Amino acid sequence: MYNPRVEDLREREFPMLRDTIYLDHAGTALYPKSLIERFAADMVSNLYGNPHSASSSSQRSTNRIDDARLHLLQLFHANPDDFDVVFVANATSGIKLVLEAFRDLPQGFSYLYHADSHTSLVGVRECANQHHCFASDSEVEEWLVDRQMKKVQAAQVPELFAYPAQSNMNGRRLPLEWCSRARSTGRSPHEATYTLLDAAAFVSTTPLDFSDVETAPDFTVLSLYKIFGFPDLGALIIRKAAGHVFQNRRYFGGGTVDMVLSLKEQWHARKTDSLHDQLEDGTLPLHNIMALHAALDIHHDLFGGLDMVSSHTMFLAKALHDGLSALRHANQMRVCQMYSSPHSYESSQAQGPIVAFNIRNSQDAWISNFEVERLASIKNIQLRTGGLCNPGGIASHLDLSPWEMKDNFSAGQRCGGEDDIFGGKPTGMIRVSLGASSTKSDVQRFVNFVKEFFVDEKPQSLGLPGPPHSQTSEHGTFAVESLTIYPIKSCAGWKVPPGQEWEIRKEGLVWDREWCLVHQGTGVALSQKRYPKMALILPTIDVERGCLRVRYCGEMPRPFKPPEISVPLSADPSYFVSEFPKSSTTKVCGDTIPAQRYSSKKIADFFSSVLGVECQLARFPVASRTGASMRHSKAHLQGFSQKGVSRPILLSNESPILVISRSSLNRLNEQIKSSGGKAAEAEVFRANVVIAESLQSVPGREKPYAEDEWQYVKIGEQLFELLGRCRRCQMVCIDQQTAVKDEEPFVTLAKTRRFNGKVFFGQHACHVRLGDSRSRQAQYATVKVGDAVRPVCRGADE
Ligand SMILES: *Cc1c(COP(=O)(O)O)cnc(C)c1O
């Protein structure tokens, strides 16, 4: 049943959702504003000290912690006589506490777990004498029945049986009654089977009822931030009847012992009052525990309790599941491969509010999760993709056998990596998870998103849309409209003044990406993707005075004075950190590059204060010093085959020269405007050379994307080889004048220029040296604005 109150709460309680659709509640819930306000009011009006002392502030903390334990037990209808709560950092820490106890048992233990387990449950097996993974529910059922019929021997060593109440991968729910059926007390504690229930995913939207102590699990772990959004805290609920296993735990931490002898004799006495006293090592996260009071109250006030949340989210999950499974391509192929059984969303016994799926195109090929996540992020939709920390669930639903997974791993597959389809199979899934604050409109907008980007409305032909094959001579005549260099990587460009001859070197236009900004801590080069304000840093090449001048055109932070800095164009060694290159390697796009960092504090302060991150200016060493040109050597080439022609494509955003065409941009902007979007400026593509069709061309007869077909091009007197199309990411959405992000032009590019899951615009190029190296033309190759641009066929006699 849908709770319409949530619609009213959205504006007031979740201002962070204003332009965002949050669909990762299985990762963490969202905290309402009034929860933070209630907590803040408590913190500023009361003094809370560290417990374990007699002061009134300490006593106040102790009392509040005791109350929090009680309230948490009440949420689960658990009688404090039968259960205890141990506060831990997260569900994983709770699992590890249980593991420690079993590992330290004199006979060790045997571990049984279900294939749907979260990674944190799977890892327990590494400490067990022996372990077994149940591949399916029916295997668990068989084991339970066989044991009941005494077909299998009673446990020889203590057994721990663990499973998730709800799979964090697809939301499937597992039978809760396994807990009591699996438990056996045996003749002694050493012949008993204990149960560990991972309720982290389950309780985020659904109540658990421990009112019958006989059917409750022995150990239950949960993540409170998945229910309330805040505080960051986990809990282990222990059925006191099983508490004796902890007596064998060998480690003791501060707060868990009454006396410890260290000198001459080694002896200690554990606390005996309660389980939590024995298990909570060190200082408790007391402010987090305090916040639990506010979290419980506010959650109930706003959402009406976990029962209401459960029916609200299940209503939405069913709508989401039905919406996605109904999508069809024009050729009637299904769009979404769902990873849940068809009718499970009708029952909250069988299913939680999570929908896991993958997308296929109309040619029956998989769409990469990476691509989906990238497009979703452009549309401000937050979801999770990949292996989802659920190795067994992924392997069985994606039909991946161990050898395939190992093979994929050695072929470079990593969770969250860009390559996620191997051997024609996806290696991960898309997970959309709903929570107390989700609404019908979130669901509708998500289904529309999938429709907009992934449903093929027309029968598709393979290949990138482009102009039909034509003779190069038919193309209009092009000329250089502008030349731009980007002296500091990822900062604003500087336009070469018209009429000025600009030198081309092997590594590109002179002074292009000669400098970069590096993080002072990690040495990694900064980029606009993370620091959009870099677009407002304006470098200028002042050839006359021989310096690079840098201005910031955004609002300057108050106490900071100099509006501009400058460094010489010559690489004067006295400007650099002396111990080059040892301390000054830097990373650009994953590659380690030796860059020289400037030592000046004034320069560092300038960049650090405008960007709000501690960084320093660095310079790439001159090509002659290291032999090969840095930039050119970074151009990763990858085989790329289209229509049988193999052309290289550059993966890295670093290539010698980037060329875009005004006609292509015009076409793109027409498409953007026809859907009401914001047209893109040429600047967002960060091209070095913008070419435009000359004025003689007949209007309306432009040749957009003609450059896709070119192999070589002559600009003025210089020959360039086109290396391949330039792959694009969200960085093109940063307005270079305001540093504000938009969804265009990426959204339209993704619809019109997407090939093999990759989005392309512009061409990478490098200069080809011709003729006698002693000629002036070869020694000092230049281009200028206005130069004619002529495509040249491969093999043409030059
Ligand atoms: C989130 C989750 C975990 C891990 O919880 P942490 O709080 O990150 O330790 C374990 N199991 C399931 C089912 C989960 O959903």
From TrEMBL:
Coiled coil: none annotated. GO terms for molecular function: transferase activity. It is an enzyme of class 2 (transferase). It catalyses: Mo-molybdopterin + L-cysteine + AH2 = thio-Mo-molybdopterin + L-alanine + A + H2O. The keyword Glycosyltransferase does not apply. Keywords: Molybdenum cofactor biosynthesis, Pyridoxal phosphate, Transferase. Gene3D superfamilies: Type I PLP-dependent aspartate aminotransferase-like (Major domain). InterPro entries: Aminotrans_V_dom, MoCF_Sase_C, MoCo_sulfurase, MOCOS_middle, PyrdxlP-dep_Trfase, PyrdxlP-dep_Trfase_major. The modification N6-(pyridoxal phosphate)lysine is found at residue 226. Its EC number is 2.8.1.9. The active site is at residue 389. Its cofactor is pyridoxal 5'-phosphate. Residues 615-792 form the MOSC domain. Sulfurates the molybdenum cofactor. Sulfation of molybdenum is essential for xanthine dehydrogenase (XDH) and aldehyde oxidase (ADO) enzymes in which molybdenum cofactor is liganded by 1 oxygen and 1 sulfur atom in active form. Belongs to the class-V pyridoxal-phosphate-dependent aminotransferase family. MOCOS subfamily. This is Molybdenum cofactor sulfurase.
